[in-house]
Amino acid sequence: MAGLIKREDIDAVRERADLREVVEQYVTLRGAGIGSWKGLCPFHDERSPSFHIRPQVGTFHCFGCGESGDVIAFLMGMEHTSFQETVEKLAGRMGIELRYEDGGKGPDKAEVGRRQRLLDAHKIADEFFQAALQSPEAQTAREMLTGRGFTREHAAQFSVGYAPKGWDNLLKHLRSKGFSDEELTETGMFSSGGRGIYDRFRGRLMWPIRNMTGNTVGFGGRHLYEDDKGPKYLNSPETAIYKKSQVLYGIEHAKRHVAKQRQLVVVEGYTDVMACHVAGVETAVATCGTAFGEGHIRIARRLISDEGGVGEVIFTFDGDAAGQQAALKAFKEDHMFLAKTFIAVGPEGMDPCDIRQHRGDEAVRELISSKTPLFEFAIRAKLREFDLNTIEGRVGALRATAPIVGAIKDPALRPAYTRELAGWLGAEMDDVARAVAYAQKHQPSPHQEAEKAAANNQGTGSQRQGDQRQGEPDGEQLRRSAPGYPRPDTRDPAVLMERQALEVILQHPTHLTAEQWEEIFTVRFTAPVHQAIHDGVRIAAASASDPRNWVQAVRDEVPEPIKSFVSELAVTSLPTNSDEHLEKYCQSILNRLVELKITHQKANLLGRLQRMDASHNPEEHQALNRELMELERRRRSLREAEWG
Hints:
Layout lengths: L6 H10 L2 H5 L6 E2 L5 E3 L11 E4 L4 E4 L5 E2 L1 H9 L3 H12 L14 H24 L6 H9 L4 H6 L3 E3 L5 H8 L4 H7 L2 E4 L2 E4 L4 E7 L5 E8 L9 E3 L15 H11 L1 E5 L2 H10 L4 E3 L7 H11 L7 E6 L3 H12 L7 E6 L6 H8 L1 H9 L2 E2 H10 L7 H16 L6 H13 L3 H14 L3 H16 L14 H4 L13 H15 L6 H8 L6 H14 L5 H10 L6 H9 L7 H33 L6 H26 L1
Parallel strand pairs: 12-13, 12-14, 14-15
Antiparallel strand pairs: 1-2, 2-3, 3-4, 4-5, 6-9, 7-8, 9-10, 10-11, 15-16
Helix pairs in contact: 3-4, 5-9, 11-14, 11-15, 13-16, 14-15, 16-17, 17-18, 17-19, 18-19, 22-24, 22-26, 22-27, 24-25, 25-26, 27-28
């Protein structure tokens, strides 16, 4: 198993990675001053750009939502990959060979090579199928798409393809690209027979199944011809790169919308995903021939940042018996979410693709907006099992449904559903409330267990060894005044000057001379948050090696609630319009900081002199006066340097 990546290798990745180049793959940037760029934040919706980057110190910060960090944090947020996955991905791009702690190793090179060959084969097959969709043979496939309301552009958007009839069309193509039969067997795209391997997918409409990073890892194919005796839908078998329980179809299109809207819509089929996205429901995904299970839930929680129950997961199922069973199975997994869960059942049992085809895009959006809480669906499904016209039936129904209501994690919703249940049963409110309270007390709520587990995971997850941390807190934490770190009031000239000095220190550390560093290390800041950052600066400066690691090194040494504030200071535009003006501004601010320190020292000395009787200790009195004169000389020289 891979160990932790060595800190110096992580630093090397930061130093070599070009933050601007990486960010511009996702954000259009324009100049925002010397060494600074800005654009529309990719982490939240906005009309005016508040997302700033400063590549020379490797830092980004959004003044709107508070997201901040380095190039690694940016890619983690955009691609929803772990810290280690992100570092390894960046290192691979730049040709950096990573080393691991405790004798651990990175991914086995031979295994990485095999995995890459599988990915390469799938990429080529994906392109092959897409090209084949334009062939004369694929007319039936194109007509099926058109009949479901999809255009050529829609097919291209979702990379829909066609597997030609015949036994070895794809096989010959991949052999011509240098793949051996042994490699092709491992892809899952081929079956074995008495004469060797042959194409698994033949005469089918094809959808590529991609992972979170957009790599094609499998395929789903729908039959088109009457003489095809195979199943209606045929999916790739599990391989080294494709695990059905860990992949959601359409996730590469949906992930950013899911993260922004804190919503995941789970539909049943490939065309349902397409229909939802085309209709404007861009958070839709589907499982690939398997039930929605724990692996999918982990993906969902990771994308919607499933904390505090603010997100929502919406399941869409057919209104038939099978659809209801699938919904109830989803409800059994509901306890693993902190997000609220809902179900949306189409009119007359229609799926989203049917709804769009027959009633239009607006009807698809209405289906999702008219969702029903999964709790309500489960309660009503359970009630249907009893004859509510009899006393025995009502008692049995109450016993069966009270635990469901008792398991509701939202303390505001639980009494509301208790009242609803009393109405559905035609029972006394007090009787139902007692039954719910009893069920809640004697049967541990799975939601409470999930919340407890999530809290435990959150506590340990943020304490990753070395530099490998989870995502950073929102910048709004400081705006709400984190305990011990109130937002500094820059109407105070001294506090404003402290902030300006920290901006210079974080953004342009190379402008400081050795003498200025020594002076700065002994300055005391008045604002608690400024002093905490100053302490981080002193610690980070002891081991800093490259300006592009500088801000992250300071972030690593400050308390968690103010990490985002460090990034804010690191990207705040300075009032300069040229390199020459920048140099003068930096020196002026730093000189004023030292001058402030001297002013405080003079005030302390004057206080001591006023309390001292010169006749009793003339030598100490004279020494203090000399010290005062030296401080005044230094203050004057700083002022002359600023105005010289």
